[in-house]
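Hi R.,

Here's the chain you asked about this morning:
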Amino acid sequence: MKRYALALDLVDDAIMIEEYDAHHQNVSAAIKQSITDAGITVMDIYRFGNRLFMIMEVDESFSFEKKDAMDAANPKVQVWEALMWKYQQAIPGAQAGEKWVMMNQIFEL
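And the predicted structure, written out as tokens:
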């Protein structure tokens, strides 16, 4: 099993952050299925202020390229992603158009 850590910022607006949190309390079965179908076995998202941190654990079938292709072909995921982008903004240092940015592991116990 492989683990990835990614970061993203939200628009720094209390009402929008509250809405974003609320959306994540009611993620549809179709979106959850798209995540597990891609080989993601664990996905946890944490928030501090407007900074998000995501931990993903994946099986051997997972690749970011496969997940991107699956998402592009799934209209429900496209609607979800468009909605989420309303609340999200690129983290400092992200490439143009990049949402979640991979974090480098610097310590392990």
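Helices lie at 14-23, 29-37, 64-72, 75-85.

Let me know if you need anything else.
M.
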